[in-house]
Structures are given as C-alpha cells and as structure tokens.
Amino acid sequence: MIERLDVPVAGGTLATFRLGRGPEAVLAVHGITANSRSWCVVARALAGRAELLAVDLRGRGASSELPAPFGMEAYAHDLLAVLDRCGIERAVLVGHSLGAYAVARLAADHPERVRAAVLVDGGLTSPAIEEVDPEAFLAAFLGPALARLELTFPTPEAYHDWWRAHPAFARLDVADEDLVAFADHDLGGVSPQLHSTVAKDAVRADAHEMFEMGKPAQRLTVPAELLRAPRGLQDEPSPLIAADLAQAWADGAPAQRRVLDVPDVNHYTIVMGAAGAGAVAQAIVRGLQGPVGGPPLRSAR
Prior knowledge:
alpha/beta, Rossmann fold, 8-stranded mixed beta sheet, two-stranded antiparallel ribbon, 11 helices, globular
C-alpha cells in the first residue's frame, strides 16, 4: 500500500509517498524526468528493513504543478521540509541521477540532518563539462528525454508501449508492472492527447545547473557511497560516471566514501531492475548501520 503525504513547501505542497514499511525511514529522490515510482523496486528489495519515503520533485509527477524555483538549492529546501514534516532528525538519503545531486547538496549544506548519502549513478560532474556549450550539452545529453516531453499518446497503453520499446528496458530485468506504474504516474492530460507531466522549464533549469551541481559531492563530510552503472541512458556501453572520476572522489576521503560498480545495469535499471535495486537496497542498509569505512568496493556480487 502506497501512502501519500503532502508536505507544505514554497509555492504549494510537495507530494511524498511512503513505499513500504520499516523501523527507520530513508528519503529517496528520483532523476531529472522521472518520478517517485522509480523507487518501487528498491522499496521491495529493502524487505521491511527500512521505510522508503519517495518524493516527486517540483515539476514532476504529483508535484508537477509546483512552480519555480527549480534547482538543487530549492530541492534541498524541499527535502528538509519532508524531514521536518515526518519528524526525522537524521536520515539516510538516496538519490538517483539528478536526485544524487540534490542529495549531495542537502548533505553538504546540512550534514547534521544526514546519517549517510547513497548516490546512484549521479552526483559527480567532470571538470571538462565547464568547456561545453550549455545548449549543445542539453541537446546531446537530454535530447531523447526532452523529445518525450513533446509527445502525445492516445491511450495509457500507448505510453506503456513507448516505454517498453525504450532501449534501456528492452533486454534487462524490469518487471512490466513496475514500468507501467512508473509510466502512469508520469501521465497527464486527456485522451487522445495524453502527455508526460514533467515541466520542461524544470528540466531546462536543472540541466543548465549541471555545470555547478557536482561540487557539493566534493565537500561531503558524511558517510557516502556512489553506485555506478556501466551502461548509459540508452543502454549504450558508456557510463555516465567515469571510473577515474568516481575513484578520485572516493580517494578524497577514503574513510568516508566508497564506490560500487553494479554489473550489467544501465542508468535506468540500476534502480528499476531487480539486480540494481538489490544493490541499492544493500547500500541503504549499510548507510543505516554506520560509517562506510574500509577500502572502496569495485563491484557488486
């Protein structure tokens, strides 16, 4: 049973969903054009060891009507509001893709509210990105995602089929009911003009911040673990987080940081597939148990 909590934030209420039950709460933050339902598989993988509170960021899902400001500072304030609303003094935070940057920003600015941070295929930015034209980067990196926001669909089933045909889901272990739940939570409008509810202004504002948003992860003082997918957004063999970038980040505070490579997953299935979600759930449990400690891990087995 999914329980909805409406959390007062600037401009309205932020939709937050309790996925599963457990003795301790974990706050989960989705990617740039995703929504809270991307965490359903991770919530099941936790198997009662923790309760997952998954937000819909402003401009997405059931928070799609929330206005600007967008960006990491605004999201960090919204996440603090969720912790306060739920009476959570210190939490393990887990973020996927854009959500990892939001988690890093909150953990860097308010370490007293964070027990540990789990960054899933996001959170770091290569220094070379500073030399890239913002519009060219936006078109190259987010082109397919932005194109989806322009599409309309006659029926929910047509939208389900669009996601089923997505290269990220064509060959790997994502259950159809989880993909349908994710798609339905993103869908708005009236047939035959159904469409994604993701606010394009939010996506563009966040993408332009990519040039700065990786800096908070470099100043983290809380225990932190970075999980890395070997394949990209289209299931191409090109990771979003380069191995040397991830290792340099871990080496910056080896007693506090660890890198985990999750084999045979892509940027989506690292949270929505069974194998990836299992690895993420294990990292969350490690965060609940205490400091990272020890040498970096190289791969999940």
